[in-house]
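Below is just one:
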Amino acid sequence: MEEFKSGFVTLVGRTNVGKSTLLNALVKEKVAITANKVQTTRTAIKAIINDDKYQIIVTDTPGIHKPKNKLGETMVDTAFTMFSEVDVILFLIDATSNEIGRGDRRILDKIIESQKPCILIINKIDLVQKDKLLNLIKIYSDEYDFKAVIPVSAFKKNGIENIICELTKILPKGPKYYSEYEYTDQTMRQMAEEIIREKALKFLNDEVPHGIYVEVEKFKDRKTTKGEDIYDIDAIIYCIRESHKGIIIGKGGNLLKKIATCARKDMEEMTRHKGEFKSLGKSQRRLARKR
């Protein structure tokens, strides 16, 4: 009988390299929000990949960037702290790179220092020619003895199974740390907060998103008069500056409603329940508070 394997993996890379997209592709569920903005992921998010033969717990860390404030410093520290706590490191880089940039060099040096088993994943291969990809592989392979180098397109979900295959070769035999039905350690309340923040990142101006924080005050399931399952969600978006409040609400509350509508669709798809964002849709004054 084949031995059951399990273990812990951390996913690390620069900001906007596609870590959250890759994590969602690996687990085949939406566990991390995605947006074309820096610092989208603020905390370490766990995704659980289950199979009859293995259980892989992957942590998506905040993107590595040059910190401009205390929040940025904490996010970067969180990413590097994970190295000592895992069995394998997944190092994600951008296929469009021509060399080892400053951010990737910082990560690579930390990996070399840790001496942990590491798989190099080259994302966005659909955007480059084969010769450029081969050159990038050589540049990185000359720097460290990676357990494997895997080209992927996280957005198109190409090469994802190769990552899992290589991980199962490295991970030790072990128990199931989570139920086979779990695919993240986040609560539904936390996921609702992140989804709302994702939609804010999508629609708001560049100067606003990273100064916001979403708190779900109420997350309650009930049945409608027609017997349908529904979630009632009361959420507040906190903003740092008073001037941001009007931007978040939008003219006549239109932007706020847009954020709520898009968040509701994702929540309904994820929970298979209908959702009603009460505070988002009806109480604009409570939604955007100065924190």
Q: What stands out?
A: The mean pLDDT is 82. The chain has ten helices and ten strands. The longest helix spans residues 254-271.
